[in-house]
Write a structure and sequence with these properties.
The protein is mainly alpha-helical and 290 residues long. 53% of the residues lie in helices and 4% in strands. It is built from twelve helices and three strands, in the order αααααααβββααααα. A hairpin with a 4-residue loop joins strand 1 and strand 2 (157-161). Helix 1 runs antiparallel to helix 2 and helix 6 (121-136) crosses helix 10 (234-247). The longest helix is centred in the N-terminal third of the chain and has 19 residues, at 60-78. It starts with a helix and ends in a 6-residue tail after the last helix. The model has no long low-confidence stretch (mean pLDDT 86).
Length: 290
């Protein structure tokens, strides 16, 4: 089953390195417990895996998360026509709570913009990346994959390949971000001839495409300087984009298109309201009597 796990992890490589590490760790543990070929695994092996997880005193949420990863693994090969265990046999506790990334708020972005300067190349690079994440809602891997030739500064847009499904889509940014980007490109073109929009600054990474880990580090550094104590990740900007557009009344189809979701079900998470959000929005619709 090792070859199938490796192929699946390679496919999931569009996610953050930390997520891929978790998927690989869980599936390797599954392989070590069941000790069978993927085509030989049955419901009894899923039960065995579940019991071993509980023996290890994992929380209910952790057990459920492990089972979700295994189920997704089987779904991947089922869709390719493999004769394997039906993923529906892998039952997950319906009380399982999916932990989502924090959505960055507009005021937090403003604090980051105030603290990160634009008077030197490195800071300007960080500021452009942060504002592109906010304006476009792209995945961090899609941001890292951007090449200079994809930019259309005259129209504040770029044409990219949706990372997970390969479809082409446009992303758009604000005039303010375009001004930062234009300033950055002037500096960049004088010192960097690579085709990549963002490259590393360390001696060993100059001229090489930036990594998702570097973007994560830029954001962490900016949050620390701006005294933002909440954990903000690159994906927080993607969630922030979705919530911001929802709050401004954007239709679901627009949010789906902007985020590059093929399945609208993936977009419904941005249409869900937490209690505080619901209270705030509900009061907008209440008219004063009399």
């Amino acid at each position: 089953m090792k070859a199938q796990i490796d192929q699946y992890i390679d496919y999931k490589g569009t996610y953050t390195s930390r997520a891929v590490f978790e998927y690989a760790r869980i599936l390797k543990r599954f392989e070590e417990i069941v000790k069978k070929d993927i085509t030989e695994i049955g419901p009894q092996d899923i039960s065995k895996f579940t019991k071993e997880l509980k023996k290890a005193r994992l929380s209910g949420n952790s057990v459920a998360f492990n089972l979700v990863i295994v189920r997704n693994f089987f779904e991947f090969y089922q869709k390719q026509g493999w004769k394997i265990l039906n993923p529906n046999f892998i039952k997950v506790d319906r009380n399982f709570v999916v932990k989502s990334h924090n959505a960055i708020k507009p005021e937090e972005l403003e604090r980051m913009n105030k603290i990160v300067g634009d008077d030197n190349y490195i800071d300007l690079q960080k500021k452009v990346a942060i504002n592109l994440l906010w304006d476009t809602g792209v995945r961090v891997s899609e941001l890292c994959d951007l090449n200079v030739v994809q930019l259309d500064l005259d129209n504040c847009r770029a044409n990219i390949k949706t990372k997970k499904v390969g479809d082409s889509r446009y992303i758009f940014w604000s005039p303010e971000t375009n001004n930062l980007l234009s300033k950055y490109m002037t500096l960049r073109n004088s010192i960097d001839s690579s085709p990549y929009l963002f490259t590393g600054n360390a001696p060993h990474s100059r001229g090489r495409r930036i990594t998702t880990r570097s973007i994560q580090r830029w954001i962490a550094e900016s949050c620390k300087k701006a005294k933002i104590t909440r954990k903000i990740s690159p994906h927080s900007f993607r969630h922030g984009w979705g919530h911001d557009k929802r709050d401004k009344g954007a239709p679901l189809a627009f949010i789906q298109k902007g985020l590059g979701h093929r399945n609208p079900i993936s977009t419904f998470v941005y249409m869900k309201y937490h209690d505080k959000d619901f209270e705030k929005t509900a009061k907008k619709y209440l008219k004063k009597r009399g």
